[in-house]
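ligand=EPS
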Amino acid sequence: MRYLTAGESHGPQLTTILEGVPAGLPLTVEDINDDLARRQKGHGRGRRMQIEKDTVDILSGVRHGQTLGSPITLAVTNDDWKHWTKIMGIEPLSQEDQEEVKRKVTKPRPGHADLNGAIKYGHRDMRNVLERSSARETTVRVAAGAVARKFLAELGIKVAGHVTEIGGVKAEPQSISNLDDLKAQTEASPVRCYDKKVEQQMMDAIDTAKENGDSIGGIVEVIVEGVPAGVGSYVHYDRKLDAKVAASIMSINAFKGVEFGVGFQAASLPGSKVHDEIAWSEERGYYRLSNNLGGFEGGMTTGMPIVVRGVMKPIPTLYKPLQSVDIDTKEPFQASIERSDSCAVPAASVVAEAVVAWEIAQAIVEQFGQDRMDLIKENVQRMREHAAKF
Ligand SMILES: Cc1cc2nc3c(=O)[nH]c(=O)nc-3n(C[C@H](O)[C@H](O)[C@H](O)COP(=O)(O)O)c2cc1C
Ligand SMILES: C=C(O[C@@H]1CC(C(=O)O)=C[C@@H](OP(=O)(O)O)[C@H]1O)C(=O)O
């Protein structure tokens, strides 16, 4: 399975084409809209989220509520487009419109793709860069992820994402063993954090940053339960599933690092506190006495929950201006801005769920059969039985 996305932040719509989703997967717009709505929430979002009410149109690849095996086209309309039809118009500008729309973006914002993208593509108007580098694109990645999540649910695999840290305020390591309970707590939280004790502190940290014209980042965690052991491979660098999952997290705008299980703490722990000892029982087959490695050994799943975290840097557009240089005049200036999120870590936890769900679903389709939901289900079940008896 693979997908491409297209669309500018203030253009008419975002689109994705999903290739290789097996035939026979039940799929409705509601399955996708639910995740789109979850991505729009979260304390710290800016005014744009009041304009947009993201919903999907399924334009191909689904008939009577079932996938066909043909490419699936998903589109989300930008409600803000109506305010940008001239600035973002597709046709060449008339003389009269040129006067009205002539203001180019020549002042690159530190932390954004603006300057590097302009140098790379030769754009003297950096709107040509920022429109596509914007995280608005994550809308359709969440739509693609919702399809992957539906696929995984058919195989009894659950995916949950949440926030574990915002602006230095940390949640207690979670002790909830049931993923459904964890999800219920997270969904009810304005910062998508299961730890009620720190929720208010997280919101206060966001509000303080905003009052100071600043922004903050944080850490999100995604847990995937129910993936059989042996998905991925150790035989080649580009078949290692942990590497693909890490790349998917790093592909989210503003993400700067990834860890699995105990992650970076492994640098200071002895091996006896890191490696997950192996046990066997009649009911469970092989299992681990701990899950410090976050569900991966040798680029393959261990059968334990996958636990992956990503760190998001603070939002780069600040109300407190940072210094930059105008690319036309070469004069220094201090950027001031009109609107931005001050913290998007809760929203990013939904994006992280989506990209991880896609990678796991893709690995399963590749390993257990490409075309038909019923055959994939049988093959996954066979693999589970094989592992239990092994
Ligand atoms: C859900 C989400 C919302 C974001 N909202 C904003 C925003 O409102 N303002 C902003 O400056 N950056 C925002 N970002 C981050 C930028 O898109 C990102 O930092 C920028 O494109 C540069 O990419 P890089 O940080 O990956 O290098 C957001 C990121 C995500 C994931
Ligand atoms: C539109 C979304 O996020 C946007 C991501 C973003 C950026 O620079 O990444 C900048 C802001 O866009 P605007 O300048 O239009 O307010 C955010 O609102 C979204 O998440 O749907």
